[in-house]
Specification:
Radius of gyration of chain B: 24 Å
Largest interface: A-B, 47 and 56 residues
CATH topology of the largest domain in chain A: MetI-like fold
Number of helices of chain B: 13
Number of domains of chain B: 2
Shape of chain B: flat
Order of helices and strands of chain A: HHHHHHHHHHHHHH
Number of strands of chain A: 0
CATH topology of the largest domain in chain B: MetI-like fold
CATH architecture of the largest domain in chain B: Orthogonal Bundle
Oligomer: heterodimer
Distance between the termini of chain A: 53 Å
CATH architecture of the largest domain in chain A: Orthogonal Bundle
Number of helices of chain A: 14
Radius of gyration of chain A: 25 Å
Helix content of chain B: over 70%
Strand content of chain A: under 5%
Helix content of chain A: over 70%
Largest sheet of chain B: none
CATH superfamily of the largest domain in chain B: MetI-like
């Protein structure tokens, strides 16, 4: 009988047993629950929302305060790190953890506002296109095609030169490029919904097109809109971080995650945590939203599979 | 097919006009456009100021101004770069080969890796390999491109010292930028290939082929793959757009002397003529590539040709 894990692994039977245990784990109850429900992503998203909501309460320091005594102080678990600066400090001694908390606020706010603006424009245009058809449909759908065909990053670069980088510009640019998917999907579903008997009944009863759109078609769109919005959050946070990283997004000293990664670029050989920590935050959040979006899509609207 | 081709080319020109109107429109939206053509801190005498106004047609209606600008752009004249004090197009031409080399290699690699990973993961569905490939794709889709690049630099250049961190040189300089760029794109391709191959493998003609005794390999590669590969092709155009963003980011992180980095640098230098030049050139490359993708798609899937 092998007595230790090392001994167990060293025998051939033991190695087989390890693979067997791995397979066992994959059919065990906890694993099946994790696979069936998006517990991990929902956990990350709840944490993100809490971080953003209570950023000024839970942050150990002011995100803009620099302390020259702690320049490039490493994270707490590394040699030389202090728990005072748990994720370490950046090149001018600002606490990374506090900056990440406040960065969460910026990321969520950008995603929320852009989704609100882009989503409502897209839904309204999509319903108009799908319900009225004809010339309006043609015009709106060509606009959608156009918006898909124009490389976003290039327009953002030109706009940054003309107007100068600012939070408002980021919001406007992202909104301009986030409505087309909503319009396209909404239109497709509206085309189906307007053939429904209950819509015909409403029309016979004398309901105006506006009333039909708001009371009879819009409620049917909720699934598709929720799935699409969740799938878009990750992309929006990613795009915002790219703009901020390049220096054409949210201007310093606001702690946007993208610009925090850019700050640490020069110090990658001496203080990797300045770049890696905020980048990890972006990665986890985008991953969580993508994963949750996929899950919602598969469960509520498998028709969207090709998205 | 000829009709489809003609429509597609006309459409491409329409989008090109759309891009040019956006770029031109932006230049006229923030005060006097002459400031955009002025090096920061310099002063123009009244005569120069008036002469530049006449050149830009500021005394004429907007349409004439646009035509003047577009006419110049068509002949490759975007104005002299404010930063380099030379013709913008010449600078663009010098930087072009570096970008084409990097993105060409990365694109081919992304497609090869993406498609083969997608196939492997669909064929071995549910295996550990499948799990690993899906993890790879998930990272590629959720990780911010700049962060992935920085982490790779930290591991392979700073920590292990195997590869150079940046700039252009021999083949070792290609490894990290190409891997970063290809990883991001191959993730999407792998996911789409996987889901589309799984869908095809579920269809009746595959069951029939299996039932009549066709070998497993033959079923996958001869029967299923031809249909399954149509889906990844449809996203080729969308992929090009993210590829441009990727090029811009990767060139910036790796100090690659290409167009993407030049675009960011000139945006940060407020070099309006150069930024517009790069935008227009990038847009042309982008539209030509998506035209090529569309034609390939129409060639493979005849249903598309009926427009």
């Amino acid at each position: 009988m092998p007595t230790s894990i090392q001994e167990l692994e060293s025998t051939k039977a033991g190695r087989k047993g390890l693979i067997h245990r791995l397979k066992n784990f994959r059919s065990s109850t906890p694993y099946r629950i994790i696979r069936r429900y998006p517990i991990l992503p929902v956990g990350i998203i709840i944490m993100l929302i809490l971080m953003a909501a209570f950023a000024n309460v839970i942050s150990p320091k002011d995100p803009l305060d620099s302390d020259l005594a702690h320049v490039k102080s490493p994270p707490a678990w590394l040699e030389g790190g202090t728990t005072e600066y748990f994720f370490g400090a950046d090149q001018i001694g600002r606490d990374l953890m506090s900056r990440i908390f406040h960065g969460a606020r910026i990321s969520l706010m950008v995603a929320g506002i852009v989704l609100g603006a882009g989503g409502s424009i897209g839904i309204v245009l999509g319903i108009i296109a799908g319900y009225s058809g004809g010339f309006r449909d043609e015009l709106i759908m060509r606009m959608v095609d156009m918006a898909f065909a124009i490389p976003f990053i290039l327009v953002a670069l030109v706009a940054a030169v003309v107007f100068g980088a600012s939070l408002g510009l980021v919001l406007i640019l992202l909104s301009m490029f986030s409505w087309p998917p909503f319009a396209r999907q909404t239109r497709g579903l509206t085309l189906q919904l307007k053939e429904m008997d209950y819509v015909a009944a409403a029309r016979v009863a004398g309901a105006s097109p506006l009333r039909i759109a708001v009371r009879h078609i819009a409620p049917g769109l909720s699934n598709i809109v929720i799935v699409l919005a969740t799938l878009q959050v990750g992309g929006l946070i990613l795009t915002e971080s790219v703009l901020s990283f390049l220096g054409i997004g949210i201007p310093a000293p606001k702690p946007a995650w993208g610009s925090m990664v850019a700050d640490g670029r020069e110090f990658i050989s001496t203080a990797w945590w300045i770049s890696v920590m905020p980048g990890l935050a972006i990665f986890l959040v985008v991953f969580a939203f993508n994963f949750l979006g996929d899950w919602l899509r598969d469960h509520f609207d498998p028709r969207l599979r090709q998205l | 097919m000829a009709r489809f081709l003609a429509l597609r080319v006309i459409y491409m020109f329409l989008v090109m006009i759309g891009v040019s109107i956006i770029v031109f429109g932006l230049s006229r939206m923030a005060g006097d456009p002459r400031y955009l053509y002025m090096t920061a801190g310099s002063r123009w005498s009244q005569e120069v100021w008036d002469a530049r106004g006449r050149e830009l047609g500021l005394d004429k209606p907007m349409v004439v101004q646009y035509l003047l600008w577009a006419g110049n752009a068509l002949t490759g004249d975007f104005g002299d770069s404010l930063w380099y004090q030379r013709n913008s197009l010449d600078i663009i031409k010098e930087r072009m080969p570096a970008t084409l080399q990097l993105s060409g290699i990365a694109y081919v690699l992304a497609i090869l890796v993406g498609v083969s990973l997608g196939i492997a993961s669909a064929v071995k569905r549910g295996s550990l390999l499948d799990l690993f490939i899906r993890g790879f794709a998930l990272v590629g889709q959720a990780a911010p491109p700049f962060w992935l690049a920085i982490v790779l630099i930290y591991i392979f250049a700073v920590h292990l010292g195997w590869l150079p961190t940046s700039r252009r040189g021999d083949w070792t300089n290609f490894v990290l930028p190409v891997i970063t760029l290809a990883w991001l794109s191959s993730a999407g391709i792998a996911r789409i290939t996987r889901s589309s191959l799984l869908e095809v493998l579920d269809s009746e003609y595959i069951t029939l082929a299996r039932a009549k005794g066709v070998g497993r390999k033959s079923v996958i590669f001869k029967h299923a793959l031809r249909n399954a590969l149509v889906a990844p092709l449809t996203v080729a155009a969308v992929l090009f757009a993210s590829f441009i963003t990727g090029t811009v980011v990767v060139e910036t992180v790796f100090a690659w002397p290409g167009l993407g980095r030049l675009a960011v640098d000139s945006a940060l230098n407020n070099d309006f003529p150069l930024v517009t030049g790069i935008t227009v050139i990038f847009a042309i490359i982008y539209l030509l590539s998506s035209l090529a993708a569309d034609l390939l798609y129409a060639y493979i899937d005849p249903r598309i040709r009926i427009y």
